[in-house]
Design a protein that fits this description.
With 249 residues, this protein is mainly α. It is built from 12 helices and no strands. It is flat and about 55 Å long. It starts with a helix and ends in a 6-residue tail after the last helix.
């Protein structure tokens, strides 16, 4: 996880803590471990918050980009890139980071417009104006913000169908974990369910503006063959756990 953070890939890093905690909980790790790990996590969040706060102060003092950005990054407590801090600050204080909504906040604004104009039944498949006219760039319309396109073209009903489908898949994985005949199978199924849950929550959250933009794909819907294959492989492993279960009555 630390190596992924150093790449840097902050979005993928956020997926691992929930998976690790859930698997360790199923493995019945002593409570003191969770307490210690939670304290470390709180400290890390505090350091991240302090770093973003310093960046926020810098933006207030230097609203225009300058060479001071390089000097700031050299004194930063975390190895975050400038675009990563911009994403966090855009979420926390959009009027400070991108007051005109034409830079770091553009995709978020266009996604919110797409979601809000979809209505109940949507505009029809392929008729979404935000993606069709390029307001939502093609590079993200079919990948990170595919849920915004879904909301505009199929409306609230289409979103509910998609979310219900995700719920059934995740609930099915948890049900397999509960019926697993061995602890490893249970941990595997729980890990897959939490991974899917985290991806769905963060991706949908950044589309509707409740989480920062991280670039995490939406399982089974976002464009990209590698993640799609990975999702099917994970479900295949969960299916294997279910197949080798033993029912206890």
């Amino acid at each position: 996880m630390f190596l992924i953070f150093l790449q840097p890939d902050l979005g993928s890093t956020l997926v691992f803590p929930p998976i690790a905690f859930s698997i360790l909980y199923v493995a019945r790790i002593p409570t003191r471990f969770f307490v210690t790990t939670s304290l470390v996590f709180v400290v890390m969040v505090g350091v991240l918050g302090y770093d973003v706060f310093r960046y926020y102060q810098y933006k207030l003092e230097n609203p225009r980009p300058s060479e001071a950005v390089t000097a700031y990054e050299e004194t930063s407590l975390l190895p975050l890139k400038d675009y990563q801090r911009k994403r966090i600050l855009t979420f926390l204080a959009p009027k400070v980071e991108d007051p005109g909504g034409v830079d770091a906040n553009w995709n978020r604004i266009q996604a919110l417009i797409a979601v809000s104009t979809g209505g109940i039944t949507g505009k029809g498949l392929g008729d979404g104006m935000q993606a069709k006219l390029g307001y939502l760039p093609p590079a993200v319309a079919h990948n990170d913000f595919i849920f915004a396109v879904l909301a505009e073209e199929s409306g609230t009903l289409g979103c509910l169908v998609a979310l219900c489908a995700f719920f059934l898949v995740i609930f099915g994985c948890l049900k397999v974990a509960a019926k697993s005949s061995d602890r490893f199978g249970g941990m595997l199924a729980v890990g897959v369910s939490v991974l899917l849950m985290t991806h769905v929550f963060i991706n949908v959250g950044m589309t509707i503006g409740i989480t920062p933009i991280t670039g995490l794909p939406l399982p089974f819907l976002s464009y990209g063959g590698s993640f799609l294959v990975t999702c099917f492989v994970m479900l295949g492993m969960v299916q294997s756990v279910y197949r080798h279960r033993r029912e206890f009555r």
